[in-house]
Amino acid sequence: MRVATTLLAVLAAGSALAADRWETGTFCDDDGAASTCNELVHGTLQTAHDLEGPGGTPDQDWAVVQTRARHSYEARVRSNTLIWDGPTCLSACSRLDRVDAGGVILNPGIYPGAGVGSGGIFRSTVVVRWQAAVAEKQYLRVIGFPSTGESAADQYDLELFDTTVFVPRFNNTSTQVTVLIVQNTTPDLVTGSIRFQNGAGDLVHTAALSVTGHGVQVVNTATVSALAGMSGSVSIAHDGGYGALAGKAVAVEPETGFTFDTPLVSLPR
């Protein structure tokens, strides 16, 4: 009888709290704020988080990302059962943000696409994008509806991408010169940094990336004095999200007219 009573008490206590599979670990869960060990890496897809909070208060789900210098990132949440902050709900609904260890918002969530529902006013996807200057720990936080809380049926999926694109080779040595061509595949302005590394991986030059929606930016590296007589690789960190950029580097032999194409590549999903 005592065992049954104890079991009922445990179940009753557990039912008052959010208890999805990301919050029931013996040693780790996503409720530990900045101390969470819920780490996201490129290609991570976590499904069926919920935002049920204790006693009707908002649930908070945290995750950490170990960034790399010169890389850019995008975190996405998707849900068709939640109302996210946006056109119909300003600062009073569920939200995704990049925050510091104390919970101060560094990058608020944004709402790509046209939206769903009448007039496209509802958003089922929210993203956070940022560029990392150094290797460090970063924090993501999803927080539920602040006034009444939400139920175990209010679920979302969380995903992380390293959005950096790479060119394995540029060559301005001997008789070759390289032209870099970057296409924006989205309707929105994409900005960022184009970084040129020598063969040892040392940063030798940085150029600004700014490509209008569906536009193209061309960089003739032969006109950049810091790249004269050099070869190496290129990386591009940007705010356009995963898959936003396409393009190639074209090494040209002016005397013969021969060209050698090296495509921009993203990390595989």
Task: Give descriptors for this structure.
43% strand; Jelly Rolls; disordered N terminus; Hypothetical Protein Tm1070, Chain: A; 269 residues; 2 domains; 5-stranded mixed β-sheet; mainly beta
Write the layout of secondary structure elements.
Blueprint (H helix, E strand, L loop, with lengths): L1 H14 L23 E2 L4 E6 L9 E7 L4 E8 L16 E5 L5 E4 L16 E8 L4 E7 L11 E8 L2 E7 L5 E8 L5 E9 L4 E9 L4 E5 L10 E8 L6 E8 L6 E5 L1 E2 L3
Describe the structure.
The chain is built from 1 helix and 18 strands. The protein is mainly beta and about 270 residues long. The chain has 2 domains: about 15-160, Jelly Rolls, CATH 2.60.120.380; about 165-265, Hypothetical Protein Tm1070, Chain: A (Sandwich), CATH 2.60.290. It has one helix at about 1-15; strands at about 40, 45-50, 60-65, 70-80, 95-100, 105-110, 125-130, 135-145, 155-160, 165-170, 175-185, 190-200, 205-210, 215-220, 230-240, 245-250, 260-265, 265. Residues about 1-20 have low confidence and may be disordered.
